[in-house]
Design brief:
Length: 512
């Protein structure tokens, strides 16, 4: 038992946990992060094999290459002195849709050209009107930086309390806490546009547009369809972002312990006072922040603690899981590959139907440091649409498992072969992953993307819990799933610990 408590102990080094830890360290707190894996980053960790740098999660980044930026991750990197890492910009990605093979760009002109070709001039006019409707909603969302919110559940109430400078945004604010679907239903009739929006919602939230938060989508559309829009790719991939957060944490005196799994939370007099690790070590802390998902967090509590909350939270519905394909392959003669390709099989099956959508990402197209010379590295995944029920109970060593993996991952190859017919012969590394692989390496409940909490029913829960001394951050908390949201939740957990004065110093330092 380490008797002297640290100020802040963070369970998990996902992007949310690292953001929380780095901000607490910046505010002068002693901070220890405990990560079960040998690599930091959680869903955003990278790994290397034979000179290929593989990604495990995020492929779409924006708001990193500019300052000022409304991306909370970019703001936190700035705050911890890690603003100078290199970021590449690009505009286009490919989509293989039932309508055909399209190259779609961010920025208004390129997208309108595609819409005109697929659906005609009326659809372009409809799209322009839709973007106009979204502009005040995006402006309202932008008017209060997420880092300015105080931790707590009543986020909408806080927005309304911000006073006169927000008066002009009041009419649009009623949309911020709701779902995007009703807005789309009111303003878009063209089938292609509706499908396109549904696809983007699904890629962001893991749920269709009826369940995806309107503020998140209005902000995304505001960024992607502005005149100066671009997408970003951090040089070195998501691992480079994780490294920057870890460097910032350490520069401010924080510690990261890899390969240290937390087995349970220590509760004394109904307060969380530390953790017990699987190696038997106990570490005491004034505040504990769990970056583990909600299901894993409640499992760390003794059965007699916060029983109603444990029952309710443990029953949170989960998004679907993933199939993964990682390839290292010979790039000879493949000069015009897109960095990303998104494939959808059949709109009528629904965007969330199993085996109906996939993302193929080849970051070495932009960043040659990701693969050995003359080669590419690919990460393919089916985004949150692989049913856990197909895999639950299978052993990863069994013949049934191997056979099912081959059958279900065949989809990747059939889509890839449309673009690179001899892809199988080109590969020097092939790794296929299932929801069980995802659960194992990302340590998520049922290999899930995160909680399937519909925006139609309200916002994600805040970072506070009924157990004093225990906070949460990451994809199970407000504002939700995805890199910018989990960075914001990490900041909110940090604000709860370091207090109003330190939060306001941070906002001043960032000019927010
Ligand atoms: C395939 C895929 C593609 C994605 N694409 C994008 C994208 O393009 N753009 C985007 O913005 N977002 C994307 N996301 C979502 C985004 O990556 C995640 O929402 C985000 O990274 C989750 O961060 P988090 O803070 O919740 O922590 P997590 O990544 O969930 O990490 C939690 C960490 O806690 C550790 N942990 C858990 N329990 C314990 C314990 N008991 N003891 C010690 N450690 C523990 C885990 O090992 C893990 O490292 C994608 C996700 C996936 C899976």
């Amino acid at each position: 038992m380490t008797d002297e408590p640290v100020d802040v102990l963070v369970i998990g080094s996902g992007i949310g946990g690292l953001c929380c830890a780095a901000l607490c360290a910046r505010a002068g707190r002693s901070v220890v992060v405990l990560e079960a894996h040998q690599q930091p980053g959680g869903a955003a960790h990278g790994f290397e094999r034979k000179g290929f740098h593989f990604e495990s999660g995020p492929s779409l980044w924006s708001g990193l290459s500019r300052w000022p930026s409304s991306n909370p991750l970019r703001q936190i990197l700035q705050a911890i002195g890690e603003e100078d890492f290199p970021v590449l910009q690009y505009k286009n990605w490919d989509v293989l849709l039932p309508e055909g093979h399209l190259s779609i760009g961010v920025g208004p002109q390129d997208f309108e050209t595609v819409v005109r070709d697929v659906s005609g001039a009326d659809a372009v006019a409809e799209w322009r009107r839709f973007i106009e409707v979204l502009q005040p909603i995006a402006a309202a969302a932008d008017a209060i930086p997420l880092l300015a919110l105080r931790p707590g559940v009543d986020v909408v109430g806080q927005l309304f309390k911000q006073g006169p400078r927000l008066m002009k945004h009041l009419p649009a604010m009623r949309h911020l806490a709701g779902a995007f679907g009703p807005l789309v239903d009111r303003h878009l009739q063209d089938p292609f546009l509706r499908h396109w929006v549904d696809l983007l919602c699904f890629l962001i939230s893991g749920m269709p547009m009826a369940d995806t938060n309107a503020a998140a989508m209005a902000t995304l559309f505001g960024e992607w369809f502005s005149d100066e829009a671009c997408l970003d790719y951090p040089v070195g991939g998501s691992a480079a972002v994780v490294d920057a957060l870890v460097r910032g944490l350490k520069r401010h005196g924080g510690t990261l312990n890899l390969g240290t799994s937390v087995d349970s939370l220590l509760i004394e007099n109904e307060r969380c006072v530390g953790v017990r690790c699987s190696n038997g070590e106990q570490i005491r802390a004034k505040d504990v922040v769990s970056n583990a998902d909600v299901w894993s967090t409640v499992d760390l509590l003794p059965s007699s603690t916060a029983m109603a909350w444990r029952r309710r939270s443990g029953g949170t519905p989960a998004c679907g899981s993933f199939l993964h394909l990682h390839l290292g392959f010979d790039a000879t003669g493949l000069d015009d590959l897109p960095v990303h390709t998104v494939w959808v099989g059949d709109w009528d099956r629904g965007i969330d139907a199993p085996s109906n959508a996939m993302v193929l990402s080849i970051p070495s197209v932009l960043d040659s440091s990701m693969a050995p010379a003359g080669h590419h590295v690919l990460h393919g995944y089916t985004p949150a649409n692989e049913p856990w029920s197909l895999w639950e109970g299978l052993s990863r060593n069994s013949r049934d498992y191997t056979q099912q993996k081959g059958e279900r991952c065949a989809l990747f190859w059939s889509v890839l072969e449309q673009r690179i017919p001899d892809i199988r012969e080109r590969c020097s590394i092939v790794m296929q992953g299932t929801p069980l692989t995802h659960q194992h390496f990302l340590r998520t409940h049922q290999g899930s993307y995160g909680p399937a909490l519909s925006a139609a029913d309200g916002l994600f829960p805040g970072v506070t819990t009924p157990v004093s001394g225990l906070l949460m951050c990451g994809a199970s908390t407000f504002p939700g799933i995805g890199i910018p949201p989990v960075a914001a939740s990490g900041a909110m957990a940090a604000h709860a610990i370091v207090g109003r004065k330190a939060q306001s110093d941070l906002l001043n330092a960032l000019g927010l």
